[in-house]
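A quick aside before the break. I want you to see a complete sequence-to-structure record at least once, exactly as it would be stored in a machine-readable document. Don't worry about memorizing anything.
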Amino acid sequence: MNKILIFLLFPIFVFSQNIKGNVQANNLPISNVEVINNSKKEVAKTNSEGIFEIKAATGNWITFYHKNYDVVKIYVDSLFDYSKILEINL
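That is the input. The structure line, written in C-alpha coordinates, reads:
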Protein backbone atom coordinates (compact mmCIF):
# COMPACT_ATOMS: atom_id res chain seq x y z
CA MET A 1 0.00 0.00 0.00
CA ASN A 2 2.77 2.48 0.92
CA LYS A 3 4.61 1.76 -2.34
CA ILE A 4 1.50 2.56 -4.34
CA LEU A 5 0.97 5.83 -2.48
CA ILE A 6 4.59 6.89 -3.03
CA PHE A 7 4.34 6.00 -6.72
CA LEU A 8 1.17 8.07 -7.13
CA LEU A 9 2.70 11.13 -5.44
CA PHE A 10 6.03 10.93 -7.27
CA PRO A 11 4.93 12.81 -10.44
CA ILE A 12 4.01 15.84 -8.33
CA PHE A 13 7.63 16.23 -7.26
CA VAL A 14 9.11 15.44 -10.66
CA PHE A 15 7.23 18.13 -12.56
CA SER A 16 7.52 21.01 -10.08
CA GLN A 17 10.11 23.49 -11.26
CA ASN A 18 11.14 27.01 -10.39
CA ILE A 19 9.67 29.92 -12.26
CA LYS A 20 11.96 32.94 -12.26
CA GLY A 21 11.00 36.39 -13.37
CA ASN A 22 10.63 40.04 -12.67
CA VAL A 23 7.70 42.36 -12.08
CA GLN A 24 7.58 45.94 -13.26
CA ALA A 25 5.26 48.83 -14.02
CA ASN A 26 6.14 51.67 -16.38
CA ASN A 27 9.56 50.03 -16.92
CA LEU A 28 10.39 50.29 -13.20
CA PRO A 29 10.85 47.26 -10.91
CA ILE A 30 8.16 46.72 -8.27
CA SER A 31 9.26 45.35 -4.90
CA ASN A 32 7.11 43.45 -2.38
CA VAL A 33 4.74 42.04 -4.98
CA GLU A 34 3.18 38.86 -3.63
CA VAL A 35 3.72 36.00 -6.07
CA ILE A 36 1.18 33.37 -5.08
CA ASN A 37 0.98 29.81 -6.36
CA ASN A 38 -2.75 29.34 -5.76
CA SER A 39 -2.57 25.62 -6.49
CA LYS A 40 0.20 24.87 -3.98
CA LYS A 41 -0.66 27.63 -1.47
CA GLU A 42 2.89 29.00 -1.60
CA VAL A 43 3.89 32.67 -1.57
CA ALA A 44 7.06 34.49 -2.57
CA LYS A 45 7.75 38.23 -2.77
CA THR A 46 9.70 40.26 -5.28
CA ASN A 47 12.91 41.82 -4.05
CA SER A 48 13.94 45.48 -4.47
CA GLU A 49 14.76 44.78 -8.13
CA GLY A 50 11.35 43.19 -8.80
CA ILE A 51 12.84 39.70 -9.10
CA PHE A 52 11.07 36.58 -7.82
CA GLU A 53 11.33 32.80 -7.85
CA ILE A 54 8.58 30.32 -7.00
CA LYS A 55 7.94 26.61 -7.55
CA ALA A 56 5.18 25.66 -9.96
CA ALA A 57 3.97 22.78 -12.08
CA THR A 58 1.73 22.32 -15.09
CA GLY A 59 -1.84 23.19 -14.16
CA ASN A 60 -0.93 25.77 -11.50
CA TRP A 61 -2.29 29.31 -11.33
CA ILE A 62 0.16 32.04 -10.29
CA THR A 63 -1.20 35.37 -9.00
CA PHE A 64 0.77 38.61 -8.77
CA TYR A 65 -0.64 40.96 -6.15
CA HIS A 66 0.36 44.43 -4.95
CA LYS A 67 -2.12 46.77 -3.27
CA ASN A 68 -1.26 49.65 -5.65
CA TYR A 69 -1.72 47.72 -8.91
CA ASP A 70 -4.18 45.48 -10.72
CA VAL A 71 -3.94 41.76 -10.02
CA VAL A 72 -2.34 39.65 -12.75
CA LYS A 73 -2.87 35.88 -13.03
CA ILE A 74 -1.09 33.39 -15.26
CA TYR A 75 -1.74 29.72 -15.94
CA VAL A 76 1.17 27.30 -16.24
CA ASP A 77 0.26 25.10 -19.18
CA SER A 78 2.12 22.19 -20.75
CA LEU A 79 3.96 24.54 -23.15
CA PHE A 80 5.33 26.81 -20.40
CA ASP A 81 9.07 27.41 -20.85
CA TYR A 82 10.73 27.24 -17.40
CA SER A 83 14.11 28.23 -18.86
CA LYS A 84 12.94 31.76 -19.73
CA ILE A 85 12.71 34.71 -17.36
CA LEU A 86 9.05 35.62 -16.94
CA GLU A 87 8.27 39.33 -17.45
CA ILE A 88 5.18 40.57 -15.63
CA ASN A 89 3.85 44.10 -16.15
CA LEU A 90 1.39 45.47 -13.61
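Two observations worth writing down. The first strand starts at residue 17 and ends at 25. The radius of gyration is 15 Å. We'll return to this after the break.
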